[in-house]
Amino acid sequence: MAALLEQGLTEEGHSVHLARNGEAGLALAQASSFDVIVLDVTLPRMDGLTVARHLRRASNQTPILMLTARDSMADIVKGLDTGADDYLTKPFAFEVLLARLRAVSRRGPIPHSVTLQCADLMLDTATRRVTRDGRLISLTPREYGILELLLRNAGRPVSRTTILESVWGFESEVEENTVEAFVRLLRNKIDAPFEPKLIHTVRGIGYCLRLPEV
Fold first, then answer.
1. What is the mean pLDDT of the chain?
2. Cα angle at 114 between 112 and 136, to 5 degrees?
3. Residue 85 in contact with residue 57, Cβ under 8 Å?
4. 130, 123 contact by CB (below 8 A)
C-alpha cells in the first residue's frame, strides 16, 4: 500500500519521501521539513502512535494524517490524543485521502512561518504576504492558493486537475477553463509588470512556476 500511495501522490504533483518502518519515519521527520506526514499506525520497529508521540514531544507541529484499520471510537480518540490532526480508516478511496491531505495541510504548522521563493518572487505562508522585486502584490484567495501551490512545486508541472482539487476542493463543480482564467489574472499581477516571466504553460498538463530556460 505504501508503494501505491507513493506512486499516486507523486502523480498528483507531490514530492514524497517514503519510510518503511517507524524508526526510519521518525528519523526522516526529525531531519527534514514536510508539509504533511501520512502515518500508518501499524508499522514495524515502532508503531505510528509512538512516532507521533515522539514528534509532538519534540515540538514538531507538522500536520499528521493517521492511517489505520482500527475504527473503534477508542482507537480514533487515542490517535487524535497522541497528536494526529486527522484519522482515516482502511479501506479508503484515494480521492478521500487526497481531500484529507488538503484539509490537514491547510492547517499547517501554525507557529512556523515558511517563505516560498522563486527568483525575486516571495510568499510568506504565515502572513500570506506576496512580493516581487520588493513590491507588495495583492491577491484574491483563489489567486493566492494557486500561487502557493505552484511555488510549493516550483520546477515541476502541476496539472489543472490538481489545482482544481487543491484550491476549489474535490467536490467542486468548477471547470478547467476557470483555472485558466484565474491563472491569466495571476500572470497579470505576478508576471506582466516584471521580468523574467515565471508562470509557464505545460501543454496538455497544466502550469509550472520556474525561471525560463536559457
1. 85
2. 125
3. no
4. yes
